[in-house]
Write a structure and sequence with these properties.
InterPro entries: Aliph_Amidase/BUP, C-N_Hydrolase, C-N_Hydrolase_sf. The chain has 313 residues and is α/β, with parallel strands linked by helices. It has one domain: Carbon-nitrogen hydrolase (Nitrilase/N-carbamoyl-D-aminoacid amidohydrolase, 4-Layer Sandwich). 22% of the residues lie in helices and 30% in strands. Helix 5 runs parallel beside helix 6. It starts with a strand and ends with a strand. It binds 4-methylsulfanyl-2-ureido-butyric acid (CDT). The site of 4-methylsulfanyl-2-ureido-butyric acid has 9 residues, from loops.
Length: 313
């Protein structure tokens, strides 16, 4: 029997700096209710979906910085989303800023969770590829301070048995790196979920400003095809606190084709019927990793000895 999963892409428009989490959760629940009406099994929300994207501005004060983070998941502000999942029997993927107390210290991560139709958390991922910088760039129209506000994720790129398939997560900038997909592809991922906040303007590379949407789809389409997996990418779009962000949230089939795409820069739900078995022919023929991949011939350093590096040939 075919393994069909109806996946909703719940794109968000801008969130203002003073919008409460409770108000944002009302927006998220409205999108989930739409998704339930359209028969979705799973809804995917963007990166850091509970607040405005605060890495775009400088924050000096520690308490103020902490106020953008979630200390527990769920927590009272987000509980209505978990309750809605249970009531509507719709799972979800949600990005948020996480404040954790681990190894005897306070730690901050850019995190995403996968939640089942019963409202229980199935898995957690912490963003590994953090863009931007730690210093202040007063000449730039906005900041990109992820390297200052977050630690590099320490949970790897796991793949979970969930929703009748093998599901992995990444977050925003991770999608530009082929190894993010490949590490999950090597674990048999059939569905990779991700959210993004991508400014149209990149102050460090203004020559690419016209290419933002192209690069967005280029990396996700390649990742899907080269690993024989569905990829679902969901934006927070539009002009938020003066920063213009791309939309074009989409669902990509293992063929690399975009099957569904958002057309606005606001809150918008689109639905894709994802047949997880479409991954099979890619995984068993052209991208049968065990049969065709030859990492031992890539010339990677496999051993460092006193006499020199041993290459994997
Ligand atoms: N949030 C995030 O990771 N954004 C980065 C901006 C990089 S500048 C083009 C991204 O890769 O979309």
């Amino acid at each position: 029997m075919a393994r069909i999963l109806n996946v909703g892409i719940a794109q968000l428009g801008p969130i203002s700096r003073n919008e409460s989490r409770q108000d944002v959760v009302v927006r998220l629940v409205a999108l989930m209710e739409d998704a339930a009406r359209m028969g979705c099994d799973l809804v995917v929300y963007p990166e850091a979906a509970l607040t405005a994207f605060f890495p775009h501005w400088w924050i000096d004060d520690e308490d103020e910085l902490d106020s953008w983070f979630e200390r527990a998941m769920p927590n009272p502000a987000v509980q209505p989303l978990f309750d809605a999942a249970r009531r509507l029997k719709v799972g979800f993927h949600l990005g948020y800023a996480e404040l954790a107390f681990e190894d005897g210290r306070k730690r901050r991560f850019n995190t995403a969770i996968l939640v089942g139709k019963d409202g229980e958390i199935i898995g957690k991922y912490r963003k590994i590829h953090l863009p931007g910088y730690t210093d202040r760039r007063p000449g730039d129209p906005f900041q990109n301070l992820e390297k200052r506000y977050f630690e590099v994720g320490n949970l790897g790129f796991p793949v979970w048995h969930a929703f009748g398939g093998r599901v992995g997560m990444m977050i925003c900038n991770d999608r530009r790196w082929p190894e993010s997909y490949r590490v999950m592809g090597l674990q048999g991922a059939e569905l990779i979920l991700l959210g993004y906040n991508t400014p149209v303007h990149n102050p460090a590379m203004p020559e690419t400003d016209d290419l933002g949407n192209f690069h967005n789809q280029l990396v996700m389409q390649s990742g899907a095809y080269q690993n024989g997996t569905w990829v679902v990418g969901v934006a927070r779009a539009g002009v938020e606190e003066g920063v213009d962000q791309i939309g074009q949230s989409c669902v990509i089939a293992p063929s690399g084709e975009v099957v569904v795409q958002c057309t606005t820069l606001g809150d918008e739900l689109q639905v894709a019927r994802c047949d997880l078995d479409l991954c099979n022919s890619y995984k068993t023929s052209i991208f049968n990793f065990a049969k065709h991949r030859r990492p031992e011939h890539y010339g990677l350093i496999v051993e460092r000895t006193g006499a020199g590096d041993v290459l994997g040939r």
